[in-house]
Design goal:
single chain, alpha+beta, 2 helices
Length: about 90
Amino acid sequence: MKRVVVVDEDIDIFNPLDVEWALATRFQPDRDLIIVPNARGSSLDPSSDLEKHTTAKYGLDATIPLDKDCKMFKKTELPLNLNLKDYFE
């Protein structure tokens, strides 16, 4: 089974925490999950149909919904030099 995750440009695709954050805040399985059954697969995949070389593939749309206010989906950036003394006495 192969998977594709689609994210917006504000998400660093090389940072798994960013991608996980996008999935947690922008993905709803009932409307953002795409399944492709009987797709061409690899003969090396033991979970596929080894005679037909087919498998299932899926995509996860973790982009900001077009009908929503994108400001609600922006990540909060914490200061790099956080000093706990500024918050606790």
